[in-house]
Each structure stands twice: as structure tokens, then as C-alpha cells.
Amino acid sequence: MPELPEVQTTVDGIRAHARGAVITDVWTDYKSPFHTGKDNIKDPKFFRLFRKRVVGSCICDASRRAKNVLIHLSNGYTIIVHMKMTGHFLHGIYEKKKEVGKEVWVAQNPGPLRDDPFNRHIRLVFSLDTRAHLALSDMRRFAKVTVEKSAHLHLSDHLSGSGPEPLDESFDYHSFATRLLHYPARAIKQTLMDHTVIAGIGNIYSDEILWHAGVHPLEKVGSISPAKLRLAYTAMKQLLRDGINFGGDSMSDYRNILGEKGAFQGRHMAYQRVGERCARKACRGTIARIRVGGRSAHFCTVHQKKR
């Protein structure tokens, strides 16, 4: 699932390539009987309302809240997109074709938009007055797309419940420690990934944060020393910024708005490095994998020993 750096990279891409464009049409093949009656475009009735609210409006800006992409429109509405497991936005010139009894969208020019298989699962397309398209590729169809009045975003159920933004200047060490220590008996890995505690951290970055801090993923929050909590805080700030600077993590299927891979996966110290020698200087450990709260956790067997 795209985490904070990947979502921010997407937002930056929308701002660079689609800001100022007018939406002239919307197409989707999202349909699900499980979403009937919900404010999600997978409900055909809601999609008709969604289309009415967005067509003809200009994309004024884009921003991020937690793992949600927010596309702000000139008519006072904001499109809210949670990309879930496999979703990512793409910008380019597409052509709609008929294929085995269904409509598909294909990028017109050679390159990653057309040739990378992870970019071919187009489920939602915004046609723009620039002749280009803003498309959402989503192999597993889990993404959530809706629209709200911009003035009411702070009341939206789709955004409520998220914790503070970890890269905000106001989110200092005291705030970090206080929020974590509200759950002293819970494993640190689970607590870092709880979006109600801190927004935007998922499996990859939590593993990397704990590797840098030297904390075992199963360590109870209340048993972690203040010194190591501060190391985790510093690592969180640095690694999330690095994730943005390196264009996100494409270990799986995330791509930026031009269909290109990010580069943060080349900086992994723990995530998906099972069996490899720990990269920490003078450490003789190896990277192991366990399950924590139903998710995988990667850690060094030596410098991240559980107390």
C-alpha cells in the first residue's frame, strides 16, 4: 500500500502536471454490489453524482491528508482518493479501445505508461482540456474515490480519525512520545502503523524506522527507553523525507504520475531483506521476518533484540 512518501509523491506529480486543467469527462469501470448506497464511485448511482460534481471544474491544487490524495476543484468540491493496496495515478495521453467486450484505456506513446504492466490496470480516467488524461491504475480494485465540499473536509468521515502528520513542524518529540505511550502494552510496530496514532506510516517505513532505532518490532511501547524512542522519532522524520526525495518506494507496484518507479527500495535496510547480513557497521546479525498483528515485520536478529 502506498504510504506517506508515495502519496506525497503522487500529490506533487498532480500539482506539476494537472494543476490548472479542466476536467471535461470522467470514465470508470469500478462497480461493486458491496458499495451500493455508499458515497463511493463503485456505486453507479453515486458515480453519476460524482460526475456531475467534477466535470467542468478546474483542478486548482492537490494536497495530502494521511494516505489520501485530495484534488481540489474550482467549484468548491474536493475529490478524495485513498489508493489502497495497488492504486496509483498516471498522467498522459490515453486512447479508449474495445477489447474482448470491454473498454480499456491504453497510453498512446511508448514508455512506462504503456509498457509497464503495473500501469495497465486503468479503472478511472479524468479527461482534461489539455488533451491529456489523469488516470488511476488499480490492479486489485481496492481504491476508494469520493467527493466532498472543500469547506467540509474537516468533517468528512473519509478523513476523520487520522492522527497528526509526522512531517509537520509542530509534531515534535514530545508529541510523538506522548501518542505512542498512550498504548504502553502494545507492540511498537503495530502502534507506528496505527493511523489514529500517527498518519501515513505503513509496513515498509515502520520496519526501516525500527531498524535505525535498534528496536525489536514486538517490543512493548512502554518498555522502550527514552533514548531509543528519540532515535525512532529522528529516524521517522528522516526516512519519510528520504522516501519523498527518492520518489517513493516501488518494491511492489507503486509508480509515480509518469509511470516511473521510485528509488527508495534501493535504500532498504530491513524490509524484504530476509536472510541478508545486517548492513549496520560491526553488526553480525541477519535480517529475519516475523508476523506482527497479521503483517510482516523485518528486523536484525542482533541489534534489534527484544528486551
Biggest sheet: strands, sense, closure? 4 strands, antiparallel
Helicity range of the residues?
10-25%
Beta-strand percent range: 15-25%
Fourth-level CATH superfamily of the largest domain: MutM-like, N-terminal
Count of alpha and pi helical runs: 7
Q: What structural class do you assign from the helix and strand content?
A: alpha+beta
Average residue pLDDT: 96
- SSE string, helices as H and strands as E: HEHEEEEEEHEEEHHHHEE
Strand order of the largest sheet: 1-8-9-5
Q: Write down the CATH class of the largest domain.
A: Alpha Beta
Provide structural commentary.
With 307 residues, the protein is an alpha+beta fold. The chain folds into 2 domains: 4-155, MutM-like, N-terminal (N-terminal domain of MutM-like DNA repair proteins, Alpha-Beta Barrel); 173-300, Helicase, Ruva Protein, domain 3, CATH 1.10.8. It has 7 helices and 12 strands. It has a 4-stranded antiparallel beta sheet with strand order 1-8-9-5, covered by helices on one side. It has a 4-stranded antiparallel beta sheet with strand order 2-3-4-10, with helices on one face. The chain has a two-stranded antiparallel ribbon with strand order 6-7. Strand 2 (59-65) and strand 3 form a beta hairpin. The chain is globular, with a radius of gyration of 21 Å. The two termini are 30 Å apart.
